[in-house]
What does this fold into?
Amino acid sequence: MYTKTSAISSEALLIEANNVIRQHEAYLQGMVATSVEQKGGVLVFRGDFFLDEQGLPTRKTTAVFNMFKHLAHLFSDKYHLED
It folds into this structure.
């Protein structure tokens, strides 16, 4: 099914993704990917989104969303999750 990408476990991919996050210039304290799933050819990363007391997004929320989007672009062309 995935001929151009390499198989990787979700655990190994999260380790690699969190290393990228920590080294990225947009890193914020507490930013971490806690799960990843395969949606077709796209790897979708998830984690905390820094909501305020009312459950509304903060400026940090946008940074986290952008980071997870960056990870999807970076890794979806390289990997697919092992079955």
